[in-house]
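Hi support team,

I've been running sequence recovery on a batch of backbones for a student project. Most finish fine, but this one hangs at about 90% for roughly twenty minutes before it completes. I'm not sure whether the input is malformed or the queue is just slow. I've pasted the C-alpha cells below so you can try to reproduce it. Let me know if you need the job ID as well.

Thanks,
M.K.
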C-alpha cells in the first residue's frame, strides 16, 4: 500500500522519466543525440586541425592509422606514421604509403589553432600530434582539408539548422492548430484555408526553388537563418491540421467542459489542458521533423543549392562524391553519410522513447 501511495503521488515528469528509462532504444537514441549535440557545440575542441585550412599537398590524403606497437613492442603512447605519395600513371591518382621514418606521437589536450568556445578564446584541442606532424583520422578532401575537422564543423551547421527549423515549425504549427481547433468559427476557417494553401505546394521542389534564389552575396548568418526558415515554411501545416482535429475532439470532453464551468480562462484551458494532453503527439511530430529537415538540407547542399562555402555542412561535404571514380579512389569522402544516418536513427529512437514517456499511463 505504501508503495502504491508513493507511486501515485509522483509528479507527471517523474512518471515520464520512469517510463522513458525503460525504453532501451529511447535511451540509446538519447545518448546518440547528446553525443551529436556535444560534437556540434565543441566541434573545434574535437578537431585537431583547422577545418578551413587548405593544404593541396594533402589532397585526398587517406585516413591514417593509430599504432601502439613500435618495433614489435607494445607502447601506451599512441603514434602515427607520416605518409608519402607517388603518382600512379595508370590511374592518374596519388598512391599513399606509410613512411616509418616519420613517427609522430599523438597527445591529448594539446595546443593548436585558436577558436572561440561560447565566446571564450581557446586553443586547446582534445588530441593532436607534435609540431611538424599531421594526423588526418578520416582522411582529407580534394583541397587537403581534414575530413574529421570538417565533419565536426558540419555537425554544427546541419544539426543547428535542423533543430532551428524544427523549433520554428513546431511553434507555428502547434499554436495555429490549437487556436484553430479551440476557437473555431471564422478563425478556424481562415487558418485552415491558409494551411491548405501552404500544403498545396510540392515540398521538395519549393525548397529547391527558394534555396536557389538566395543571393550568395548575403552574409553567412543571413543565409543560415533564411535556410532554416525555408525548411520550417512547409513543415508546420501537418502538425497544425492534426492538432486541430485533436483539440476539436477534446473541446467537448468532460475535462474542458468542467474547466469552462469553473470559469477557467482561455489561456488556462489552452496551456493547462489542451497543450499538455497533446504533448506526446507534438513530440512524435518533432522527432520526425528533425531528421526530415536534416535529410532535406543534406540533399540540397549535395546538389549545390543549399549551404555554400565557407559554411560547412554534411551535405556540402558529400558534394565531392558525385562520380564513381571519386568513390572508388577516395571512399572516405562518403563518411558524412554515416553521420547523417546516425543522426536520423538517434532522433527517431529518442522521439519514440519520449512519445512513450509522455503518455506514462498507457501500457504498451
Amino acid at each position: 500500500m505504501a508503495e502504491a501511495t508513493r507511486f501515485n503521488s509522483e509528479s507527471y515528469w517523474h512518471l515520464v522519466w520512469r517510463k522513458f528509462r525503460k525504453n532501451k532504444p529511447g535511451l540509446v537514441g538519447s545518448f546518440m543525440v547528446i553525443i551529436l549535440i556535444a560534437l556540434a557545440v565543441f566541434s573545434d575542441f574535437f578537431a585537431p586541425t583547422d577545418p578551413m585550412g587548405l593544404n593541396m599537398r594533402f589532397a585526398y590524403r587517406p585516413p591514417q592509422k593509430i599504432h601502439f606497437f613500435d618495433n614489435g613492442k607494445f607502447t601506451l603512447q599512441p603514434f602515427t606514421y607520416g605518409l608519402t605519395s607517388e603518382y600512379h600513371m595508370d590511374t592518374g591518382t596519388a598512391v599513399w604509403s606509410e613512411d616509418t621514418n616519420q613517427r609522430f606521437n599523438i597527445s591529448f589536450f594539446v595546443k593548436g589553432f585558436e577558436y572561440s568556445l561560447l565566446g571564450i578564446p581557446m586553443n586547446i584541442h582534445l588530441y593532436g600530434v607534435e609540431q611538424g606532424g599531421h594526423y588526418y583520422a578520416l582522411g582529407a578532401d580534394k583541397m587537403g582539408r581534414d575530413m574529421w575537422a570538417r565533419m565536426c564543423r558540419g555537425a554544427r551547421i546541419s544539426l543547428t539548422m535542423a533543430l532551428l527549423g524544427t523549433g520554428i515549425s513546431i511553434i507555428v504549427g502547434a499554436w495555429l492548430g490549437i487556436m484553430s481547433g479551440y476557437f473555431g468559427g471564422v478563425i478556424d476557417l481562415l487558418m485552415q484555408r491558409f494551411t491548405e494553401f501552404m500544403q498545396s505546394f510540392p515540398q521538395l521542389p519549393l525548397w529547391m526553388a527558394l534555396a536557389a534564389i538566395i543571393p550568395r552575396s548575403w552574409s553567412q548568418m543571413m543565409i543560415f537563418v533564411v535556410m532554416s526558415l525555408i525548411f520550417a515554411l512547409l513543415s508546420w501545416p501537418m502538425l497544425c491540421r492534426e492538432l486541430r482535429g485533436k483539440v476539436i475532439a477534446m473541446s467537448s470532453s468532460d475535462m474542458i467542459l468542467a474547466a469552462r464551468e469553473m470559469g477557467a480562462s482561455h489561456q488556462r484551458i489552452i496551456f493547462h489542458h489542451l497543450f499538455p494532453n497533446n504533448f506526446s503527439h507534438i513530440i512524435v511530430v518533432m522527432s520526425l521533423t528533425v531528421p526530415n529537415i536534416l535529410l532535406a538540407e543534406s540533399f540540397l547542399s549535395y546538389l549545390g543549392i543549399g549551404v555554400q562555402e565557407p559554411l560547412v555542412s554534411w551535405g556540402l561535404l558529400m558534394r565531392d562524391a558525385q562520380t564513381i571514380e571519386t568513390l572508388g579512389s577516395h571512399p572516405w569522402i562518403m563518411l558524412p553519410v554515416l553521420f547523417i544516418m546516425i543522426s536520423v536513427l538517434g532522433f527517431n529512437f529518442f522521439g519514440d522513447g519520449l512519445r512513450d514517456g509522455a503518455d506514462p499511463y498507457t501500457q504498451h
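--
Follow-up from support: It reproduced on our side and the slowdown came from queue contention, not your input. The radius of gyration is 26 Å. No action needed from you.
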